[in-house]
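TODO from last week: model Septation ring formation regulator.
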Amino acid sequence: MWVYILIAIIILVIVAAAVLLYLRSVKTQMIDTQYNRLHEVNQLPFKLDLVKLKNYNLHGEAKGLYNNWQDEWNETLNTHSTHAENALEQSKTNVEQFKFSQSTKNNELAGENIEIIKNKYDELTEEVAGFIKAVEEGKHQNVESERLYREAKRDVLANGHKFGDAKKPLEEVIKAYEPEVAKYEKMVNDGDYIRANEFIFNTYNELLNLKDSMDEIPKLIKEVQKELPQQFQELRYGCRDLRAKGYDLDHIKVENRLSTLKSNLNRVEPLVAKLELEEADSILDNIHDELDDMYELVEHEVNAKNKFDGGKDVITDELFNAKALNYTLRTEIDYIQEQYHIDESDVQKVMNYENEIENLISIYSGMIEETEKNTTRYSAIVDNIDYLKNNAHTIHEEQNSIQEHLVNLREDDAEARENIRYVNDRKEKVYRELMSSNLVTLPEQFIVMKHEIEVNIREIDNYFSRKPLNVEYVKAKVNDTVLMMNKFEQEAYAVMRDSQLTELMIQYGNRFRSTDADLNAHLNEAERLFKENRYKRALDVAKDAVESVEPGSAAKIEKQFDNN
């Protein structure tokens, strides 16, 4: 037994040794990987980036940057490369001693130092590239600044007339940039690239603004000397023409406002001559706003007149029609009130409409009188156009509705009389059919229903003789009577159908009576129910009896009866 135990122990020892050897191999490979990474970062070509700076003047700021970047790189590389190498050596020793946990920590420490070197390389190369890019941009802006300076100088010399009194101030401003452009070169020669870039950036943008100002000045002068005075004249003469056509424009105060605008306009050229263009633009913006406001008010007057001219004939027609219809309604109401009951509110509405129409006509007459004056302020009266249109239209619609109601009174009266005659005829016809049917006796319910209908008819006939007639009440009474008649007719025909079908079912079943005792009993029961006026129940019993001896025959008999 101990032999097996010994063998198991030996196997465990061998397996453990194999696992330890495998782990040492894996950890060794990880250390080798880190050694390769350390070698790679030690070979990073930062010196090649620094070599690029030797193309520039390594004095002043440039020299300081060069030395700082070189020292920072060397210090980072030497310090963290040494830390990484020591950590890897310690990790290697730990692996040989099978201290895998400690080896992993040292390996990670080496990786952290390698990563610091890599990050520092990325940081410094980015700074170098940014410096080179800024220097190249500065060179480009310097070239552009010299071009803008030359073009501005040449433009003033060649086209000085278009700048007016601003020519001399412009020459002085441009001349002031001559030494400014040369300063950049001196800063670059001294290696002060950062200061040079800031300086040329500001100079370049100032020259761009100067170019924009030089482009704007001739436009401002043209606007001040020609365009705005021409607009002033056009507005002044245009308003005079409109006054001659009858427009009242006093509320716009064109002359006073134009006088003020002209005074403000006279302030612009001196500001342009002093190159105070922002203030000049502000004054011109205010002038344009004032002009737009005056043009808008004038246009509003013109549109108001057009609206008045366009709506005048329509309003005339609507008011005339409304007044004519109101007269017609008042005449009709006086006549119809003797014949029919009319809601007092409708009568009062018609009377009120007469006053409203007169009020609208008065407003419209005032508008016409206003337009017949020498001058008219159409914007003051144009709002009445919509008021008149809307109110005249509303009155027209409501008066039409009342007129339609008056017409309907006569039609409803005639319809009610016709309906009640028709109900009376139908009642007599149904009653005659009941009396001549095969019913044993006439059910009492039909006698009662017939009596109720006749009472209603007599009551309605009495109402027809009254003056004034309440048509709405009569219509409701006639409708109730029609519903009673419909019920009377439906139930009467249903009973007559049941009774006739019962006889047919019994007649059909008679052929089987002698041979079928059950059928005979059922038919006897149906006959008994028939004699007792229980026609619906008699039909059901007879149908069941016939179906029991010949399925489908009852439905066939019923279908043939309904089709005849």
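Done. The radius of gyration is 58 Å.
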